[in-house]
Amino acid sequence: MESSPSYPWSQPNRGSPVDLYSLPSRSSLLRSNSNWSLQFPSCVALNASLLQCLKWREQEPMAVLHSSSAPPTYFYPSTAASYRRRRLCLRASAVSSAPKARFIARRAESTSVKELQRPLAEYMTLPASQYSVLDAERIERIDDNTFRCYVYRFKFFSFEVCPVLVVRVDEEPNGCCIRLISCKLEGSPLVEAQNEKFSASMVNRVFCNQSLQDSDFQRLTSETSIEVAIEIPFPFRALPVEAIESTGRQVLEQILRVMLPRFLNQLVKDYQGWASGDTSRKPLGTGEI
Prior knowledge:
The chain is α+β, with helices and mostly antiparallel strands.
């Protein structure tokens, strides 16, 4: 009876090492016999993965993994290395990601303003270059339309934070729109380390409209929305994200609750000075904003 051909991977001693470079390629197998698949010993099972590997790597040797109770498993070293590289990339990406929190607050404040010799609507249409900085201790002019604002310090958990805002003023009908350009946090080293890990946006629209009850009065309104997205610092990651977001939202709401009435109050004072003929545009505030 004709014996089956002997191949390196069907050696009786399954624990012996195999010379990887002595294994045949698919091309040589095809040249040896047109019906080569029928000549493999019955103890060797070539599955779909091996056939696919033979198609992909015709000239590259196969590695054989032996076990005492199962047929050998064949794989290509380069394929396995490529697979490992993909897994490592995914793992590194997962480790580098950090939880984030979003704080959103919105508020609108209004006040009634009595019309003087010069109407409030005219005051609200002044170009930004003629604006008063209102509070010299908190606001400084960078150019005609850009200002730097130092927000008063507040506590977030056990840390003191002082935001420094750069805003741009755009003129609009019956008022203006103040938009945040950049924000920098000042405070402890941990607070300042968050400057590269957060983003913020703010829009404050200020406008006037005539009161329906009394034509001698105008209503001055400020509508503000703030949104902050921050990477949660490591010391706070044990806390639920919802708790951090709730605290952050309350802090922003408190800032708006305090600052908007003060802002409108100083705006009214500046209008009264301008309407009475004072064109010096000197700041009136003393650090209240």
